[in-house]
Amino acid sequence: MKKHTISFVIFVVGLVGLLVLSGFVFIPKNNTAEAGILDVGANGILGEPENTIDTLFVGDSLAYCAFMPLHIWEQTGSTSYVCATDLQQLQYTVEMVEHALSRQTPGVVFMEADAIYRDVSAATLLYSKIYNAFSVFRYHDRWKNLTVKDFTEKQSFTSRDDERGYRRFSDSKPAEVRDYMAPTDEVMPISDLNRELVGQIRDLCVEKGARFVLVSVPSMKNWSMARHNGIAALAESLEVDYLDLNMPGTVEIDWRADTRDRGDHMMYTGAVKVTDYILSYLEENNLLRDHRGDPAYNDWNEALQRVKNKPLT
After folding, report:
1. Pick from 305, 287, 275, 23: which is nearest to 139 by CA?
2. Which strand (E) or helix (H) includes residue 272?
3. Using an 8 Å Cβ cutoff, are 50 and 105 in contact?
4. How many whole angstroms separate alpha carbon 268 and alpha carbon 260?
5. Could you tell me if 89 and 118 are in contact, meaning their C-beta atoms sit under 8 angstroms apart?
6. What percentage of the chain carries pLDDT values higher than 70?
7. Residues 6+ apart with CB under 8 A from 62
8. How far apart are the first and last CA of the chain?
9. What separation in angstroms does the CA of 26 have from each of 12, 14, 21, 282?
10. Each residue's pLDDT tens digit, 42-81
11. Please, are residues 40 and 31 in contact by the beta-carbon 8 Å criterion?
């Protein structure tokens, strides 16, 4: 019996060691699509020089369609980045924030709150922990494209996204205007697991000295007063600010012109309005830093010019 136990332990230790070594080989060595990185736009933050991002945005597609780092830069000289992905779940938001805060020291982290109502199962959370521990599972599809460099080189992130995670859309598809934020005392419940994950994100920010703010981007298809009430209660329990840009008197969205898909996401003009509101919050709370006279930030001016020279798509 003792021999069987020792043999089993040796097998497990060997298997774990093999998985760790395989992960070193399979994990992308750069944050480019060619290197195999996932979510290239969001992971562009890995290519930013350390401790140069003042404001961080995280969330799903509502976030990457609404927050415009280059607009903030042009207006104030303050830097920001949008680490947002399609249908982002909270366990991935935790991962995004961990990665960003390992290299950056933003003064504030804005989290678009739509993902809080996207349920996360215990199984999904377990798989995520396994993927984080053993990169070979997340990047196993790369086996066809492995090169000698994957076996010998360390990670070195060099790719920077001009738009800093924002995705620009100029086409407008009008929505049927309705009172989607009609008053109600109804509170849409949030699962205990999701509450715990949001709490983890808040704690990560507190540990790094960053203010954590929940925000709801204007979206007729995703927000309601019942959802507002649920997030407002959560924000109160976490002792953080909550900015609901769907509420009357915040951002004056023209639903016939500012949405790209009939009331779901913002297009360019709507994103400018949303970002201007965020700018006013940053100014009121002294969270802006002006780097325009610092040559270390010249790439921001160059990126702004490159984007301005591109036609809207």
Report:
1. 23
2. helix 268-284
3. no
4. 8
5. yes
6. 79
7. 84, 112, 114, 217, 219, 222, 265, 266
8. 68
9. 21, 18, 9, 40
10. 999 999 999 999 999 999 999 999 999 999 999 999 999 9
11. yes
- Joined together, the tokens standing for residue 266 give 């913002």
Tokens of 37: 């990185």
Please check whether residue 125 is in contact with residue 91, taking contact to mean a CB–CB distance below 8 angstroms: yes
DSSP, collapsed to helix, strand or coil, labels residue 155 as coil
CA distance readout (Å), 51 to 19, 107, 198 = 32, 11, 24
Domains along the chain with CATH numbers: 2-308 (3.40.50.1110)
- pLDDT tens across 135-149, in order? 544 554 554 566 656
Cα 178 to the chain's mean position, in Å? 29
Can you tell me which residue has the tokens 């350390």? 50
Find the length of the chain. 313
Residue 79 class from Cβ within 10 Å (0-12 exposed, 13-18 middle, 19+ buried)? buried
Among the listed residues 68, 101, 94, 103, the one whose alpha carbon sits nearest the alpha carbon of residue 82: 68
Q: Which residue has the tokens 């779940």?
A: 89
- Do residues 54 and 289 touch, judged by C-beta distance below 8 A? yes
